[in-house]
Specification:
The chain is of the alpha/beta class and 107 residues long. The protein has 2 helices and 6 strands. Strands 1, 2, 3, 4, 5 and 6 form a 6-stranded mixed sheet that branches.
């Protein structure tokens, strides 16, 4: 089991939460919530925590997340619980979480 963390700059605050996917064979879940406020106000950064059953693929996770954060500018805390999902599924679940949060389909 591998535990990875990533941080990305953000431009806007996220105000709602979302939960998409399930942890199961070849899938993952994404939990998206507003970033914790810092001592001087809202934190404008995204913090991603990945818990994955597949070790040794940190460079792939970084590549997928780097690509995602070229389009997404929300200050959010994102938790990903993975059970062997492909990069395409990861990208899909991240997009679904953002859409759910922006549509107000919160947890």
């Amino acid at each position: 089991m591998e535990h990875l963390t990533f941080d990305y700059p953000a431009q806007r605050a996220v105000t709602t939460r979302a939960h998409v996917g399930v942890v199961g064979s070849g899938d993952l879940e994404v939990l998206l919530s507003p970033a914790a406020a810092g001592a001087s106000g809202p934190a404008l950064a995204a913090h991603v925590v990945v818990r994955t059953s597949v070790d040794g693929y940190g460079h792939i996770w970084k590549s997928v997340l780097d690509r995602f954060f070229t389009r997404y500018d929300g200050a959010a805390r994102i938790e990903i619980n993975d059970f062997g999902a492909t990069p395409g599924v990861v990208a899909l679940r991240l997009a679904e979480a953002v859409e759910a949060a922006e549509d107000g389909d919160s947890v």
